[in-house]
Amino acid sequence: MRTIKFHKSECGVDILLNVLRGNDVKVNYLKTEMYNADFFEILLFKKAKGTLILNQQKITINDDTIVFISPFQKRQWNLEPDGLDFTILVFQEDFLNDFFSDKFFTYRLLYFYQLNFPLSISIDKADLEKACSLLTEIKGELLEPKPDSVHIIRSLLYYLLQKFNREYANRFDLSLEKAENNYAYQFKQLLELHITEKQRIDDYVSLLGISRITINSAVKKQFNVTATHLLKQRLLFEIKNYLIHSGKNVSEIADELHFSEPSHLMRFFKMQTGMTTTEFLADYQNDTFS
After folding, report:
1. Considering the domain 2-172 in this protein, what is its CATH number?
2. CA 43 to CA 126: how far, in whole Å?
């Protein structure tokens, strides 16, 4: 599978962020191959019709739609070319965390690394136009930088990302309450880094240096689920990813994910989904290509 790498723009501001106009990159989004990328994307569609397979979700793309894509999420576009009008904000994770001096910044945004809720929202046309206007302003600062351009970009970007976060939270009735500590975000980050080799809560308790009660309380307060649920959900997603994209059989996947026996993986999968791995793949393929 092809992985697209982030390339620094030729803009005068040396930051790992860019605003792309749809007309300049449209051809890439009309290809139907499955691929991933090593950066975040927020796509704002003024005019569009089609579908997107993203992170095992099938998303309908219509006018006034925003799509949120995290690094290395596998995606496959099927967009109609006529009238397609969109703008894209792209950036790398380390850049954003450093830019705002917060190493968990991307984990605080509800629409990134999201497994429970959709990875897109529809938005009021006027609000979408305003967001696109702000992105155009950021693009202007990138193309014709001034001594204070970085500060302007930082303020506009922060405003946009938080506005999207508020809209996303309101849409899905999620909490915007500020956490008392970073344990829940640290746990979520560690899951992204270690899920292939660590599948017990005690592994993460040890990495964090806190008690099971503390991590469970933090996760419950921030995400309204238990830490065990979040871990199982992330592990299940990883298994599905292997089943769909790796070409490996269940025995090989069990070995990759450090299950002691393939039967343990199959039992876990059946308990979480109510389906066998074979039934899941058949359902996925029918839904994807229907």
Report:
1. 2.60.120.280
2. 16
